[in-house]
Structures are given as structure tokens and as C-alpha cells.
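Continuing from yesterday's entry. The apo prediction looked reasonable, so today I'm repeating it with magnesium ion included to see how the binding region is handled. Same sequence as before; SMILES copied from the compound registry.
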Amino acid sequence: MNSGVITGMKPSTFRRHFRESFKNLSRNGWMTFAAVSAVTVTLLLVGVFLTVLLNLNKAATDIEKDVEVRVLIKLDATETEQQALKEQIKNLPEVESITYSTKEKELQNLIKDLGDDFALFEQNNPLYDVFVVKTKRPADTPKAAKKIKTFDYTEDAIYGEKKVERLFSFLKTSRNIGMILSLGLLFTAMFLISNTIKMTIFARRKEIEIMRLVGATNWFIRWPFLLEGLWLGLIGSILPVAAIAIGYSYVIEAMTMRMQGHFIQPLAYFPFVWQISGIILLIGAFIGMWGSFMAVRKFLKV
Amino acid sequence: MIEMKDVTKKYSNGVTALRSIDVSIKQGEFVYVVGPSGAGKSTFIKMMYREEKPTEGRIVVNGVNLSTLKDRNVPLLRRQIGVVFQDFKLLPTLTVYENVAFALEVIEESPAVIKKRVLDVLNLVGLKNKARMIPSELSGGEQQRVSIARSIVNKPKVVIADEPTGNLDPDTAWDIMSIFEKINDQGTTLVMATHNKEIVNTIRRRVIAIENGRIVRDEQRGDYGYEA
Ligand SMILES: Nc1ncnc2c1ncn2[C@@H]1O[C@H](COP(=O)(O)OP(=O)(O)OP(=O)(O)O)[C@@H](O)[C@H]1O
Ligand SMILES: [Mg+2]
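Holo prediction written out below.
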């Protein structure tokens, strides 16, 4: 490829390329349809996958940000013993604050969060009295929990560790699977676009031959085909953008209702929808241009 | 205008189509290229507009050294050369006018210039009244006239034709020749490969005969020299 890409392209030339590229689209209707469909399916899956992934990521950071350690106090600890434990915890360098919560209060929280079914336990409360300990930094949480576990009168010290670890490993596997799947689909879509452009080049080979004979520049010959690929990619991303914009609004609605007051929240509709739409359009444009670029390089021989 | 120095062309399949060609064609000349089938006439012509590159030797066309010409600058060379073929190479869906205008549109000439030049050349080849027809509505001779109009619409310094009358009946061939003479009279260099003995022997011009890739004869006001 060589110079003269866009440098000083006249408006009339630009219009011509535009027109020709649209003519190309309609010229081989079925191939165009197939390529656009492939892009649509691909971007739909990539879009859903990205939405899920980004939300899981958000959940993981939400949990990580949670600097709480819940210290379950041994059932047989007396009030003075509880007080002693509190002092011990307070003296840890990682600890920022500590609050006490009775098992009755814990049960009320549980009922509030998870439903009236737990009201049954009001007769015979199976929970522990709890110290809710906040650490200064999220990274300190595991260290603090480990120390607290060694103290007398501590039944257990629980923090987000398990949840985060599980979520992260889930995140990693789903990301890898999604990545491989997406890449496969992206290449299929690109291949189909490339093939469509190849057909157009073939259909127009006589025009191309004459253009070369009379001295059209290489970029002049290439542009309509590159634009055609761009359109294929962009047209293919319309449906996925719409589907995700609409679909995500429903998801948000359902999620916010269910997870009210919870510290894990889905990504807010705005600006997320703008971002994901932008990403989908960009990927569409990219595979379109890249697909046609490959066809142009291989079959146009300019 | 056109200089070839010790030009050899060996195709990738091993066929040597041209061997040590030395030739010099001056501005305004009218040159026939004759010789038996497979002698290398078309290859000789393709060298001039850099459709093929020489394996050895030096070619200069209109001051441009084709040996050092970068691929991306080939279009600039092509704009100085008009090319005409036996099979016309017209676009079947475009009208006569559009086929000629096409050559200027794709080199981004301005609409006003395009209109004037196209009408001028259609006038020159006598097809102004058929400007709106498409090629399939024209006779072979008329189609070749469209193709010639397209080759000269950008005012090239040289027109190169490979058997331009090969597909035409004798009368039509003479019509085409009179157009070529007109173009040559205006100072345009003309190089034409042909098998048409009658034309070469009647319109007497310089004749370059090629046999087996070598120039075997080069005469001002030469004759065809082969049995037709
Ligand atoms: N693209 C090519 N690849 C390989 N060999 C070629 C190619 N073009 C031509 N040749 C060979 O080069 C030799 C010269 O061919 P060329 O077409 O120049 O002959 P010509 O004089 O134009 O013949 P004709 O009068 O039949 O048109 C022939 O042997 C031909 O087979
Ligand atoms: Mg030939």
C-alpha cells in the first residue's frame, strides 16, 4: 500500500467512493446479507459477553471494596470477655473501627435481606453476637481476619475472601471461554466480509482493469471496497446495539429491585450503554475494514 | 519519446518473449509493429505502458525511466499514454458518453473539464450523435471508436494500439485508420501492432518487424513483408 490515502481527496471523489461502495453492497445481495448476518450474530454474542463480564468485574470490585470482617463471638463469652476481645481487636494496627451487633439485630438484618422465612428463627436464634470490624485498607482485611481468628472468644472471622476468590476464578474461566468464542466468531465474520468484497472485486474486474489502464491511483481503486467493508461491519452492529440497549434496561430494572440495599450493584444504565454501543460499533467497523483490507490486498493486487 | 536499450523479457514460465531490443521512437512518429503470431509484439507494447517489466535493459517513455519508476507512480505514467485493444474493453452498462468520461472521472478531473473534453473527442471520432447509446447498440467499428476516444480524452502524448483492427471488417478498419491518422497528424505518437498487410502497405509508415523476440527489420516507410 502506499501514499495518497486521503490526502486532498476532493469532495466529488469522496461522494463517488461513497456511491460506488453502496452500489457494491446491493450488487451481490446474498453475500451482503450473509456477511451482515455473521457480523450481527458475532457482535450480539460479543456484546452480551462483554456486558456480563463487565458486570462481574464490577461485582468483584464491589466485594473487594467491602472492608468488613465479621467476628462471630463465642456463645459462652461473658460480657467482660466480650469487652476484652473488643479491646484486643481495636488495638490491631489494621483496624479502623469496630461496632457491636447483637444476634437479635443480625437476625432482623437477615430477615430484611432474605425474606420472612427466617422469622421462624425468632423463637430460637441460631446466630452469634457479632463485632463488625472495618479495616483501613481492603488489602488488610485478610491479615486482620487471620489475627482475630487466633483470639480467645472468637468463634470465626469472616470476610469477602471466599466470595471474591470464587467470583474471580469464575470471571477468569468465563473470560477465557468468551474470548476464544468471540475470536472464533470475529474471524468467521471477517472471513465472510472478505469473501463478499472478493466477489465485488471479481464482479468489477473489468472496471478495475480500465481504471488501471487510464491511470487511476491505487487508493482511488481501493476506497470503494474498503468503504463497502466498513458498511458491512456497521450495518451488522445496528441490531446488537439496539438489542443490548433495550435488553440491559430490563436487566437493570430486575436487578435493582432484587438487590436493593445490597452493596453489589449492576453497572448503571448510563454511561454503560453508550460505552458498550461504542465498543460494538468500533468492533463492527474494525472487522469490516480489516476484512475488506485483506480482500483488497489479496485480490486487487494494487 | 520511447527508448528501449537492450531490453530482454523473460516470463516467469521461462518463455523469453523479447531479446536485446534496441529501439528509439521519436515524438510524432507513426510506427507499425509487425511479425508472426507469438513473435513478441504484444509483449513489446506492454513494456511501454509498464504492464510488464523488462527482465533486463532500460526503457524510457516520455522522459520517465520505467526501470526506476515506483509501482505507486505507474498511474502517472498511464495518464500520459492512451491504450487501445482489439477487444475494445468498454463497460457494457455505461453509455458511450459515460465510457469516455470514466477515464477522466477516475483520475479526478473536474466535471466541467470532463464534459468539454468528452464532447470534443466524441466529435473527433464522429460519435456525438450516439453519445447516449450503450456499447451493445453499436457496431464493432463504432465500439472501437469509443475506445479510441477514451484513449485520447486525456490528451496523451502517445497512443499505443494492439491489433486495433483485428476484430473489424476491412471497410471499418479503414475508418479506424483514418481516425488514427488524424490523431497522429495532431502530433501524437502512435505505435500500433497489426497483422493487417493491406493497411501497412497502403498507409506507408515506419515498420518494426519482430520475429522470435528480436527486431529483424526497422524501416521508415516500410512494408508488411509477410504473406497475409
Ligand atoms: N503473460 C505471459 N506469460 C507467459 N508467457 C507469455 C505471456 N504473454 C506472452 N507470453 C509468451 O510470449 C511470447 C510472445 O507473446 P506475445 O503475446 O507478445 O506475441 P504476439 O507477437 O503479440 O502474438 P500475436 O500476434 O498472436 O498477438 C509467446 O510465446 C507467448 O506464449
Ligand atoms: Mg499480440
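Comparison notes:
- Residues B 11, 13, 15, 17, 35, 37-43 surround adenosine-5'-triphosphate (ligand 1) (CB under 6 Å).
- Chain A touches chain B at residues 2-4, 10, 12-13, 16, 206-207, 209-218, 220-221 (CB under 8 Å).
Will overlay with the apo model tomorrow.
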